[in-house]
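RECORD TYPE: inverse folding
INPUT: structure tokens
STRUCTURE:
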């Protein structure tokens, strides 16, 4: 609504509110609203603590998975090839010993 000097007032068109929005307000029900807000806050806080705990557990699990993957890679690319080479060497030496004994 415009006022005389080009100013506008904060009064706008009337909007009807539902009664459900105000069912816990009023002189006699203010304590109930505070109690409900406290309960919702406590529940939100519990949920937040549980979420932080899960996040920490996931971070630890992620680190353990990475360490395990490093170990698997080391076994696949270092340990197993060394063992295979050792087995090949032992087999070749045994074959060589068999050939020497055969010709004696």
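DESIGNED SEQUENCE:
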């Amino acid at each position: 609504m415009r006022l005389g000097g080009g100013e506008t007032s904060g009064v706008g068109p009337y909007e009807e509110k539902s009664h459900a929005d105000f069912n816990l307000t009023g002189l006699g029900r203010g304590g109930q609203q505070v109690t409900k807000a406290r309960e919702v806050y406590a529940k939100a806080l519990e949920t937040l603590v549980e979420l932080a705990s899960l996040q920490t557990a996931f971070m630890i699990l992620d680190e353990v998975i990475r360490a395990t993957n490093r170990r698997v890679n080391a076994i696949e690319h270092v340990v197993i090839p060394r063992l295979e080479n050792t087995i090949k060497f032992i087999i070749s030496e045994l074959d060589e010993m068999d050939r020497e004994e055969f010709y004696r």
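NOTES: The mean pLDDT is 83.
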